[in-house]
Structure formats: structure tokens, C-alpha cells
Amino acid sequence: MQTIEAINKAVKALCTLAMLTGLSACSMLGLELFGEEGFFRDRQGDYLEAESIPRINVPDDMDSYIIDDLLVIPDLASMDGESFLQVPRPRPLQGNPDQAVVVQRLDERSWIVIDASVSQVWPRVRQYWLENDIELVLENPANGLLDTSWFVKDDNEETQEKFRVLVEPGFQDESAEVSLTHISLPQGERVSDQLSWPEQSMDAEYASEILGEISVYLANEIRNYRASTVSFLAGNISTKGRATILTEDGINMLHLRADYERSWAAVGRALERAEIEIVEEDVDIGSFSVVYGGRNEEDETGFIGRLMSVGRQAETTSFDIFLVESETGIEVLALRVVDVVNDSANSELQEQQGIELINELIQTIQDFI
After folding, report:
1. Are 111 and 262 in contact (CB under 8 A)?
2. Which of 167, 206, 311, 323 lies 20 to 30 Å (CA to CA) from residue 87?
3. In a domain, 28, yes or no
4. What range does the domain containing 173 cover?
5. Could you tell me if 114 and 40 lie in one domain?
6. Is residue 56 part of a domain?
7. Residue 207, class by beta-carbon neighbours within 10 Å (0-12 exposed, 13-18 middle, 19+ buried)?
8. One Pfam family, short name please (predicted)?
9. 365 and 330 in contact (C-beta within 8 Å)?
10. How far is CA 326 from CA 148, 255, 256, 270, in A?
11. Residue 247: enclosing H or E segment and its boundaries?
């Protein structure tokens, strides 16, 4: 055993000596291993010197898939500025596909809500049209707009169809919404360059059908994530959610940067997701009547907590939630329904507890919107 250990030590020593000798020889011969001129130089900044190469041309006698740039590089007026060596990595869509992609509907309007940022959703929506052989004539990542070319449906050759797609931030941070506007004209009719888009789709049923296909496509993309599919241009759009809590005189209210229909559907979905009982709702006047008992305490989760709470009736309070239009969006307000008989004994304490519950209720709506 001692002989074998001695041999191993000798071999290691010879290997180390050989390596040091090789390094010394490289230095003596003028060969640098490290540094800017060395063989093992730092290459992380090489992309800054990269040049454009000609596009790939597939011979006419060969079949090819659609070749399209996923990361479109715009022409820059000036190259002045600081060079950044830290390149952000693309992030995958995350979450349960059945829960991360939801189609919301109100009357004839529908839109997709997805738990992913605009920069993640944009290239996938774009790729949906390209994979269906429909060209895009307008791409404005900064505003989240995509316009398709005119195309003809397989089952109706008498009309020509066109879609405008809007990808915008959702109410929650790092979320997005996708909506469509559809326009249809008789086949062969001359189309003006300055097309006037309607507020609502001409064929709401067809637009809803295409939106459903896009939602399925996005859900499948969560399962089959491709790291190369990410848009840094769409990343210029703010990922900040469109739901903000404002406080006035110690009372919270929720500000939604959206139209009334979109806000109504979002608040209703938030109440359902938070499992807050909705007693009555009226979309015309913009109100929900709910019963709310406050947030569940963390120490009551688990088996012991459930065992201790058996037979105990939780105290709940009735609230009216109102959606009020403002110049910049929709304000969501909550008012406690006063119990004249029970609240009169200690009105000041009841009022303070009511304010605390209002603030919790508004915070809960924001968390689940």
C-alpha cells in the first residue's frame, strides 16, 4: 500500500512539473495564455463588435419554413452611448397553463389575461400569425400593436379579413392582456392606406374564435417553452401593473387604468378568486354587494388550525363595492354597510374596525385582480 501511495504522489508531482514547464515554455516562446492577446482571453464583450451577415436564402427548388426574425434589431440614428456587458437572459412563461392563461368575456367583448410580462407574450402572439401564414404589416412593440395583412378565410372567399392585436400590461405586475379588433370588407374593394379601425370588432364571434385559438397557443407555449422566443423591444413597455392603491384620509381605494367593462370583469374575477361571497351585483350602476370577514390568519392554516376552528362562526361584515369612472380610469371604492342596532353601542370602535376591513378588502382585490 505504501508503495502504491508513493507512486501516486510521484505521478502527481511529475504532472504538475510538466504543466509548469509547459507554461514557462509558452512564455519563453512569446505565447500569451491570458490577457487581451492571450489564448484564454475574456470574450464576453465580443458581441459588441459583431457585424450583420446576409440573410439566409433558401433555393427556390427547396421547401422551407417561414424564416423570420424573432428579435428585430431597429436601425439606430446614433451609436453613441455606454456599452453594457450584462445581457439579460430571457425568462420562460411560468405557472399552470390552465390558470396562467384565462379568456375573460363581458357582453360581446373578450380578451386574454396571462401571467407573463408583455416582453414574453409579444413574440409568441407574433409567431402565432406567422405560423398560420398570415403576414404582419405593422409591428409597434413600444405600443404593443400588431396589424395583420388582409387575408381570406377558407370558408368565405367573398370577404377579406384583417386583425389588429393589442398586447398591453395587465392589472398585476408582470402580467399582460391580449385583445383583438377585427375588420372585414368585401373581396376586391379598394382599401385606404389610412384605415379607420372600429371600436368593436365587426364580427365579434369570429374575433372570439381567433382569440380562443391564441389563448390555446399561449398555453401550449408555457408547456413547450423556447428560450429564444423573447422580445427585448417589447421589453420597453412597462411591466408595472395597471392597478394602484390610493389612500385618502386613511381609507384605501383601488385605481384601475382601464375602461369600465375591463375593470368590471377584473374586479368580479378577483372577488371570485379570493372566495369573497358576492350577494348581489349590478353592472349598470357598477356595484357589488359582498360579505367579507377579513384575511385568514396564517396561524390557522394546517390541520391543527382547521381542527380548532371547527364549530366556530367567523364574524363577517357586509360591504358595497362601487366602480366610479374618473378622468384616468376607474376608481374602486368600498363602503361598509352600517348595522344601526349593533354599531350604536360603540360607534367609534366599529368605525375604526370598518376602515381596517375596507383597507383589507381593497388590498385583497388588488392581490387577486
Report:
1. yes
2. 167
3. yes
4. 97-188+197-236
5. no
6. no
7. buried
8. Lipoprotein_18
9. no
10. 33, 9, 10, 21
11. strand 243-248
Q: Is residue 61 part of a domain?
A: no
Which DSSP state fits 77?
S
Total residues belonging to the chain: 369
Question: How confident is the model over 258-305, as pLDDT tens digits?
Answer: 999 989 999 998 999 899 999 999 999 999 999 998 876 544 444 444
Distance CA 212, CA 185 (A): 23
Q: All 3 cell numbers of residue 189?
A: 374593394
Q: What is the pLDDT of residues 152-168, one digit of tens each?
A: 988 788 899 999 999 99
- Three cell numbers written together for 73: 434589431
Taking a C-beta distance cutoff of 8 angstroms, is the pair 266, 171 a contact?
yes
Closest to 329 (Cα-Cα) out of 224, 253, 216, 274: 253
- Beta-carbon contacts of 303 under 8 Å, excluding residues fewer than 6 positions away, are none
Residue closest to 245 by CA, chosen among 332, 119, 160: 332
Q: Considering its fold, how many domains does the chain have in total?
A: 3
DSSP one-letter string for 160-175: EEEEEEEEEE-SSTT-
What region, left, alpha or beta, does residue 303 occupy, with left being phi > 0 and alpha being psi -120 to 50 degrees? alpha
Distance separating alpha carbons of residues 315 and 300, to the nearest angstrom: 15
Burial class (CB within 10 angstroms; exposed 0-12, middle 13-18, buried 19+) of 282: exposed
The CATH number of residue 139's host domain is 3.30.530.50
Buried b / exposed e across 247-269, counting CB within 10 Å, b at 16+? eeeeebbbbbbbebbbbbbbbbb
- 349: CATH: 3.30.310.170
Measured in degrees and rounded to the nearest 5, phi and psi for residue 321 equal -105, 130
Residue position matching grid coordinates 519563453: 28
